[in-house]
Amino acid sequence: MIAAIVAVLAALLAIAVAGAMASVRVLREYERGVVFRLGRLMEQRGPGLVLIIPAIDRLVRVSLRTVTLNVPPQEVITRDNVPARVTAVAYFRVIDPSRAVVEITSYEQATLQIAQTTLRSVLGGADLDSLLAEREQLNEQLQRIIDTQTEPWGIKVTAVEIKDVEIPERMQHAIARQAEAERERRAKIINAEGEFQASARLAEAADVIARNPVTIQLRYLQTLREMGSTQSSTIVFPLPMDLIGTLLPALGARADAPATAPAVPAALKSGEGNGGRRLPSGEPDELGPALANDPAARLPQPEPLPPRRPA
Predict the structure, then answer these.
(1) Does the pLDDT value for residue 140 go beyond 80?
(2) Is residue 235 predicted with pLDDT exceeding 70?
(3) 67-167 belongs to CATH 2.30.29.220
(4) What is the DSSP letter of 61?
(5) What confidence tier does 279 reach under pLDDT thresholds 50, 70, 90?
(6) 273 — alpha (psi -120 to 50), left (phi > 0) or beta?
(7) In the β-sheet with 40-41, what is the strand arrangement from edge to edge?
(8) Are strands 67-77 and 40-41 parallel, antiparallel or unpaired?
(9) Of 63, 115, 67, 111, nearest to 92 (Cα)?
């Protein structure tokens, strides 16, 4: 009899300990507990120690941390009929645990499906250039649409980012050619603008040089200094136009003057200094003064040969 009573008391004690352990829950700081008592929603609990009635209450844990949701690659066709393969990532968190449990079966799966459908619909209405260059605007549009649809579930979508856009290889080549042509166009425009500005500066420099011609000489010297910095350079010295202008009148006057014979001194004409000696032709010896003091000039001169008679 006593043994039976001890066994019953032990069983009751075990049941009480098990019930006490089942009625105690510990929730972390980032967790909240949604309690259902006989199927009815009760006030949310946590964080910390939470007591529930075993077999009557049911506790559902909900995390309030931000969830990173990877959106699988989606095949989309842009507005300009270009096929693309797009991957994205969404960030969301639970702001109302009660609605996240009551309003939707699985809020994570539901948010994923909403993100996929919204991604296809939004990117299908944008062209390829917008998809590649205006991602920030598309990200904001995706976040706004998804957040509007998940708000009734107590879900807050904080950000949506397009990670990668894959396009066909032939389209990549076409985009590369387009970019190259655009760069060439910009290079030509910049070159033309530079030439225009340089011509304006040259016109201003020409006006300054016209007012002071000495500046062109300084420019010549500066050019020679720049060219002479290396030993392998060949320098062609330019002749100033003002110097040529001063020399041309003198050269023209000298070319127009008549050719005159050298003047003969009067002493030579009269035969003084050589004893009145004259040449065979009857003209006075003009070299007499120069040869007067020359001993070789006093030697007898050979007689001229008689002219030959024809045979």
Answers:
(1) yes
(2) no
(3) no
(4) E
(5) very low
(6) left
(7) 40-41, 31-37, 57-63
(8) unpaired
(9) 67
183: left (phi > 0), else alpha (psi -120 to 50), else beta? Answer: alpha
- pTM for the full model? 0.56
**In the chain, what are the domain boundaries?**
18-63, 67-167, 169-209
Helix (H) or strand (E) holding 92: strand 83-94
Over range 93-98, report the average pLDDT. Answer: 93
For 95-142, the DSSP string reads S-HHHHHHT-S-HHHHHHHHHHHHHHHHHHTS-HHHHHH-HHHHHHHH
Both tokens assigned to 222? 């500066």
The helices-and-strands tally (H runs, E runs) of the chain is: 10, 8
Helix (H, G, I), strand (E, B) or coil at 35: strand
- Return the closest-CA partner of residue 30 out of 67, 65, 66: 65
pLDDT digits (tens, 9 = 90+) for 184-214: 999 999 999 999 999 988 888 888 777 877 7
